[in-house]
Amino acid sequence: MLDGDYGRAAQKAMQILVALGKIYGAERMIPVSSVQIAGVSYDNLGEAGLQFLDEMAQGGGRARVLTTLNPAGMDTENWQVLGISPEFAERQQKVIDAFARMGVMTTCTCTPYLVGNLPHFGEHIAWAESSAVCYANAVLGARTNREGGPSALAAALTGVTPDYGFHQDKDRLPDATVQVDATVVENDDFGALGKAAGEALRKGGFSVPYIAGLEGASVENLKSLCASLATYGGIALFHMPGITPEAAGLAPPGKVITISQGDLDLVRQSMNDAQIGEVDFVSLGCPHLSIREIARIAELLEGKRVTKEFWITTARPTKQIADRLGYTEMIEAAGAKFAADTCCVVAPIKGRFQAMATDSAKACYYAYAKNGFRTFLLPFDQVVEAALR
Ligand code: F3S
Questions:
Q1: Closest ligand 1 atom to 131 CA
Q2: Model pTM greater than 0.90?
């Protein structure tokens, strides 16, 4: 591939991976079984990114393993309803088409593990969405570094990745214990925990926490925690006794960071810089919603009418299940909008709203940093109530 025998795109891809391997001291390439590509929204990529993808497609680039895409900047079927301009939609579609020409599944979701890209324990993969990377490493026990857009695409086009970091046993051991002495039940609690722990871990220079003190966590709780730990602490792997698969047999590290109820309250206050009466945008689905969460929204909205712009962000296949189960009809009858394939962060909505209510600590960070919205972090059901208020 490096010699160009497999075409220009594979050669370029292998050059990227060899350079990366040299930087991190990898001694070999290893095969990967799946890839998740981030950097899909035209809002982030711009013309230069689109041109790079076009060149890779024209150069014969072809995914050699199962490859899925992160959210795009719009709902690919329903973008007009979300207020996306035709100019943006045209450029975004070109991005998706370029990936499709390379044989990439155009699922456009940050929860590929909910819609068919589900690696098993110990499998080597190359994923590039920080929340999904953390979920794959910690919850599934698969092995991936936190890839960037170009290195993930390169892994897709070659089927390999340099063997370093989280692919190796030695880098998967915990280096700090996070002792949770607080009530952590709902997604927003897990998000607040991810922020409090993530910031403390980053400050201490730790990268693989052993999180103790939690009795249970649902898939939805864990995806919220993963998103928040990755956002606020750059964490790509954690262990949680009784919950994550590699925790068994690990000793808790001696360095202990305690997270108290007071710590979580403070963190929550830091994300609540709006008043509830100021909220003019409501969004659930960061990371993308599961079908169980969509069912709950439908239940809460049945027979009611929302008064705010309310986005339900999820993967297209999950939306299709919601269609068949009648949830879509109930939700849309209440005036809420499905935003499949996209999310409130990667869509081009900068400055369009004043204040957003959400249950996601990650969404709070980017809503402010990227789109300039003030935020209100609430439990899931109360987010829906905020849309009705
Ligand atoms: Fe997913 Fe968008 Fe949140 S990509 S993790 S819903 S910022």
A1: 5
A2: yes
